[in-house]
Amino acid sequence: MNLRRDVFQAIADPTRRAILLLIATQAMTAGTIASNFNTARPTVSRHLQILTECELLTQEQSGREIYYHLNPAKMKDIADFIEPFRQSWEDRFNKLEAVMKKYKNNR
Amino acid sequence: MEKKTTVHADPGKQELIITRTFDLPVALLFKAYEDPEIVEQWMGTKVLQLENREHGSWRFETSYEGNVVFSANGVILEFVPGEKITRTFKMENTDFPVQLEFLEFEKLTDSTSKLTMHIIMRSVAFRDQLLKMPFAHGINMAHDRLQQIADSLK
Angle at the Cα of A51 (from A7 to A18), degrees rounded to 5? Predict the structure, then answer.
């Protein structure tokens, strides 16, 4: 098990993204999730394991069943991850805007 | 405050789209990309070459205390004044492969405009790596790192 697994590697896989979308509306068991895909059950289990390792999913025991939930905090981390990149462009474009306003006024 | 700059990066794709609305007429926005002296001002880099034409080339270099800390180059594939620039971008002395950039300049009103930068990377992995390095594409990278080092020495 790779505990340092990259969360972005995890969501790069189309099946795993589909699983996240599926679970976003309601918690499901592994069996229910697998029934939504044509993929073999062990493959789906492997996807669930990876998503759980990345903390994108959390497991909850309910009687004899284990339900998978989406972890909204981790999903937010993904959105936040782009923020420094976005901010660096924002700063650069702010500079561009300021430079051009000054240029316009000096003409 | 409203976010003027947006970054759109779908998981599993090797592209990203950056958009920005400017409180500038589109002609002035375009000029900021066309005029080497102005590019130097807002990018904070030295423009060694900028041939604004099809099959032209460009090269930027940033020095800090006499040492080159960032350099990038590319070729210009399309150049339509006031409308679009298509170019390649290669960061020198890094593992990043060359990337393709489509820059589109759009008039919104007489005094506002929009820039759309569509960047295509060689692979999804490189796209994600770029996103993880906030300053990778920019010229500020080296400066910021040096600033951090300088601050830590104080």
Answer: 100
Distance CA B127, CA B121 (A): 6
Do A11 and A28 lie in one domain? The reply is yes
What is the rounded CA–CA span in Å between residue B130 and residue B96? 8
In this prediction, residue A79 carries a pLDDT of: 67
Q: How far apart are CA A65 and CA B109, in angstroms?
A: 59
**pLDDT (tens digit, 9 = 90+) per residue, B21-72?**
999 999 999 999 999 999 999 988 899 999 999 999 999 998 877 888 789 9
The answer to whether the complex's ipTM is over 0.85 is no
Mean pLDDT of the A18-39 span: 87
Residues A78, A51 within the same domain: no
Q: How many CB pairs under 8 A join A and B?
A: 82
Residue B17 contacts A where some CB pair is shorter than 8 Å: no
For residue A76, the enclosing domain spans 72-107
| A15 touching chain B per CB within 8 A | no
On whether the CB atoms of residues B48 and B60 are closer than 8 A, the answer is: yes
